[in-house]
Automatic annotation (TrEMBL):
Family stated for the protein in its record: Belongs to the UPF0065 (bug) family.
Entry annotated with the keyword Repeat: no
Protein name (record): Putative exported protein
Listed CDD domains: PBP2_Bug_TTT
One Pfam match: TctC
Length: 319
């Protein structure tokens, strides 16, 4: 009798410790999606576009909260410490949580979250001022090698723009440039237009308006294949440079979030990405909508992490 009573008490305590939504009623209140960057960028806009439709599908509000600072780590830490109850989500891309742990800027990695899915990719463009003398990456590389330390390349240290350059440099046997600080796409675009630097990289969506206005010209895309949105531009690979980089917008939950909740969230996101309006809105932001489940998304993050680790080691960046 005592043994049976003990078992009943243990079972009751276990059930009491489970969140109410574990029974399948999630979500019962609003969901907070944390974007670890300032409003207006690709991460922020993609989250708002997709989550607006997801909110309709799930029948609960989805609140987008921007928590920037520390190169995206402030927002990521907030989610990392949140309760694993399905009401806090991180909207992220590999350039943050795949780089920071490698160079010692974070004690946690993307593996300390539950990877849910990804919603699409945004191409990265390599570009120069419209009247620049170069019309191909080969011409730029040849000039950098002929004049080491003189060509000005704008980048944000320890970011995607930095590691994209490192990959290009490695492929070309090492490139010595004059490094110009440029935190954020808009800053680097202004740097090019104002003559502060000669060349840089930024998300295609951010660069496109300045191509149309005649201020800059794109020499290459860093994507593995030609861009669906701008197929007229050759890739780095096509120009003999073994380097690639894209933004993969992904959703992650705190570690320990029930898989039943994640599965329901995944289904809602996948359904949202089938909506023509969502697809078109993402396209206008330079994002190609493509749903990937947790396994497929994890595979991309694994690949990116391995690349960042190799480049960090080669350039003695690991603390």
């Amino acid at each position: 009798m005592k043994k049976n009573l003990f078992c009943i008490l243990v079972a009751a305590l276990m059930l009491w410790g489970l969140p109410a939504h574990a029974g399948g009623t999630w979500p019962e209140k609003s969901i907070q999606v944390i974007v670890p960057w300032a409003p207006g960028g690709g991460s922020d806009l993609s989250a708002r576009i997709v989550m607006d439709k997801v909110a309709n599908i799930l029948g609960q509000p989805v609140v987008i909260t921007n928590i920037s600072g520390a190169a995206g780590l402030n927002g990521a830490l907030r989610v990392n410490r949140a309760a694993p109850d399905g009401y806090t989500v991180l909207w992220e891309h590999p350039a943050n949580l795949a780089i920071a742990p490698v160079i010692g800027r974070a004690k946690y990695t993307w593996k300390d979250f539950e990877m849910a899915c990804s919603i699409g990719t945004s191409d990265i463009a390599v570009f120069v001022k419209k009247d620049a003398k170069w019309n191909s990456m080969k011409e730029v590389i040849d000039d950098i090698k002929a004049h080491p330390g003189q060509i000005k390349w704008s980048l944000a240290v320890n970011s995607a723009s930095h590691f994209t350059f490192l990959a290009i440099s490695e492929s070309m046997g090492g490139l010595k440039i004059m490094q110009i600080p440029g935190a954020g796409d808009k800053t680097r675009i202004i740097n090019v237009m104002g003559g502060v630097c000669d060349i840089t990289t930024a998300g295609y969506a951010a660069v496109a308006p300045y191509v149309e206005s005649g201020d800059v010209k794109i020499l290459a895309m860093a994507s593995p294949q030609r861009s669906v949105l701008a197929p007229q531009y050759p890739t780095l690979m096509e120009q003999g440079i073994n380097a690639e980089s894209v933004f993969l917008y992904s959703a992650e939950f705190p570690k320990g979030t029930p898989q039943a909740i994640i599965a329901k969230f995944q289904a809602a996101v996948e359904k949202a990405l089938q909506d023509p309006e969502v697809i078109e809105l993402l396209k206008k932001q330079g994002i190609v909508a493509q749903y990937k489940d947790s396994a497929a998304t994890t595979a991309v993050w694994e690949k990116e992490s391995a690349l960042y680790l190799r480049l960090a080691k080669a350039n003695r960046m690991i603390r």
